[in-house]
Amino acid sequence: MWHKIMVISEWFGEMGERYKLVKDFNRAGKNAYIAGFAPTLLEAKITSGETSNRHAFSKWMGGGFRIKALSGKALSNSELIEVGRVVLDNDALVRKLISLGWDTLEVHDNTGFNGCKWKLMDFSNLGGILK
Amino acid sequence: MYNILQGGVKLISLEKVSNYQSIIFWIALVEFLIILFLLYKLKFKTKINRLSEFESKSLNDSKDTKIDMDSLMSSIHNAKPLYKELTKKCHPDRFINNSKQKIAESIFQEISESERDFEKLTLLKIRAIEELNVTF
Description:
With about 130 residues, chain A is of the alpha+beta class. Chain A has helices spanning about 1-35, 75-90, 90-100, and strands spanning about 40-45, 65-70, 105-110, 115-120. Chain A has one domain. Chain A starts with a helix and ends in a 12-residue tail after the last strand. Helices cover about 60% and strands about 10% of the residues of chain B.
């Protein structure tokens, strides 16, 4: 019984950590926009993600980490890719995203019709030989 | 239960039950002890793992690993222009047949490795100003 209680408390802890990460991202995006060094307001939210990108630790109906850019114009593909690549180049962040149950990174803007998706597992450097 | 009659006036009827005689008190006490036990178990849960000191330290540190989102935002918005500027100013071809050529090569290599890391690029910019005497 104690084991079950521990499992439940761990589940709540993990969910709290997921929402904390999203909240941190949104806070930083908002501050950067208010301070004036960011031309667009970035906002993250949890989506269902892409089923083909799922892995063993994916959260059900919560595998997508979507970054939405609130810009006055439609962002070009290179701009969207740049935003995604900065996140993907941050190894610690990618590992944290995967361990917290995300499997897909999505970037899109609010006016255009284009968006980008990446499979997080491709950027995690998983599968190396244990030393 | 007892009545106090004083001067023909019924003052009050008191019922005094000791806290320790109440069953609710004992239930609450048991619940409190269970909560304490669970908190204790949660706190010292990781100590069950028999890991080396280094491993357990790094495991504990990983719990507190915080992603610096402010730095991430800076990288998203400012890393690309800074990277372009640095690659132009610190390109090794600008220092051919110069004593600073090797320094320029190492700085340029580091710039290429941290293309989208604004913090590292800022540090490299300072290094370039100090070691290569480049003006921005």
